[in-house]
Specification:
The complex is a heterodimer of chains A (239) and B (205). Chain A has two domains: 2-162 and 171-196, no CATH class; 206-239, no CATH class. Chain A is built from nine helices and two strands; from the N terminus they run αααααααββαα. Chain A has helices at 2-12, 28-34, 38-61, 71-93, 95-101, 112-122, 127-157, 179-196, 225-238, and strands spanning 159-160, 163-164. In chain A, 44% of the residues are buried. By secondary structure, chain B is an all-alpha fold. Chain B has one domain. Chain B contains ten helices and no strands. Chain B has helices spanning 2-15, 26-31, 36-65, 74-96, 98-104, 108-112, 115-128, 137-168, 179-194, 199-204. Chain B is globular. Classes of the chains: A mainly alpha (239), B mainly alpha (205). The interface between A and B is large, with 52 and 51 residues.
Chain lengths: 239, 205
Amino acid sequence: MKEKKSLFHEFSKGILKENPVLRLVLGTCATLAVTTAASNAIGMGLATTFVLVCSNAVISLLRKVIPDKVRIPAFITIIAGFVTIVQLIIQAYSPELDSALGVFLPLIVVNCIILGRAEMYASKNTLLPSILDGLGMGVGFTATLLAMGIIRELLGAGTVFGVPILSGFMDPIIIFLLPPGGFFVFGILIAIAGKLSEEGHAPEALGCAACPMAASCSKLKDGNAEACTAETKKEEAES
Amino acid sequence: MIKSLIAIFLAAILTENYILNKFLGICPFLGVSKKLNTAVGMSCAVIAVMVIATAVTWPIYTLILVPNNLAYLQTIVFILIIAALVQLIETIMHKYMPPLYNALGIYLPLITTNCAVLGVTMLVIDKFYNPASPMGFSYVQALVNAFGSGVGFLVAMVIFAGVREKLEMCDVPKFLKGLPITLIAASLVAVSFLGFSGLVDGMLG
C-alpha cells in the first residue's frame, strides 16, 4: 500500500507541487514561443511528454551502463534520438502542426525539463518510478502550456481551439499573440502559482539546483545549490 | 551584395531578435542578466559559439548529410557537434588563453543546452540553404546571420541587465516579487523592440 502511494506521488508531484514550468521555471523558451494558440500548445506538450517518458525509461534502464563522466552527452544523444522520432511522426501525420511549431520541435532536445529529469531523477531511479516521473512532469508541462495557450488565444484572437468565443463581445487584443504578451501572461501565471503554493510566493530567480548543467557549473560545488547562492551573495556583498 | 548582408545583420539584431522576438535563449536571459558584467561575458561566449557552430554545422549538413539522404539526422548531429565544439573551445581556451578562460569559461558548459545556439544553426539552414551552391554566398549570409543573432543576444542582455539593476531598487508588490516582475519587465522591453518592425525593410528595401 505504501509502495502504491509513493508511486502515485512520483506522478502527481510534477503536476502541481513541482510543476516544471511554473515552480521550477524550466523549458521557458518553448512555453513562451508555442502558446499563441491552444492547439499548438497541446501538440508541443504531448510531443515533449512522449520524449520525456521514453528518454526517462531508457536512461533509467541504462543508468548502470553509462559511465558517469560521459553521462551528459549520452543523455543528450538518447533524447535527440527520441526527438527525431517525434519529428518524423508529426511531419508524417500532422504537417500543419509541424509548420506551426517550426524550429521548436527539434529544439525539444535542449528543453531543460528533459535533461533535468534525466540527470536528477531517471539516472538514479528504477524503471517504473522514472516513467511515472516523466509522465507527471509531462502532464504538468502540457497543462501549463494549455492554460497559457487558452489565455493568449482567447485574449489575442478571441477564439479557443479556433472556435470564436469573444466575437461581437470585445475586440481581440493582438499584443497577447505577440512576444510581449507571452512574457506578460507567463509572469502573471508564475505569480498566481507562487501564491497558491506552499511557500506562498513566486520563485526568486531561476533555480540553480534545477538546472541540468548544475554539475558542470563551476560556481556550483558538489552539486550543492546552497554554495551557489552563498557565493553569489558573497560576490554581491563585495561589489 | 553588401547591402543584403547589412540588411541580414540589422534584421538579426533588431527585428528578429532571438530573445525578444523568437523566444530562444530565455534561460540565460532570465538567469544571468542580473549583473552587467556577467551578462556581457555570457553574451560574448554565445556570439563566439554561435558563429563557430554555424561555420561547422553548415558544411556538414550541406556536404555530408544532404548528399547522403541523411538530412533527418540533423537534430542529433547538430547537438552532438555543438556539445563537442563547446568542449573543444573550453579546452583550447583553458590551455592557450587563460585570462579569457577565466572571464568566459564558466559560461561555456551552460551554452551546450542553450537553445539559441542550436536554434541559429537550424534556422540559417531553413532560411538560406540553396541546393545549387551550398558553399557559396549563402554560406556567408548564414555566418553574418549567426553573428548578428549573437550581437542581438548581447544587446537584449545588456538592456535587460540595466532594467534589472533599476528593478532591484523598486518597491514591488509582494505578489509580483522575484520572477513575475522580471518577466513583466521583459514584456515591456519586448514591446520596445516591436517598434523596430519594418525598420530594416524600410531602410534598405
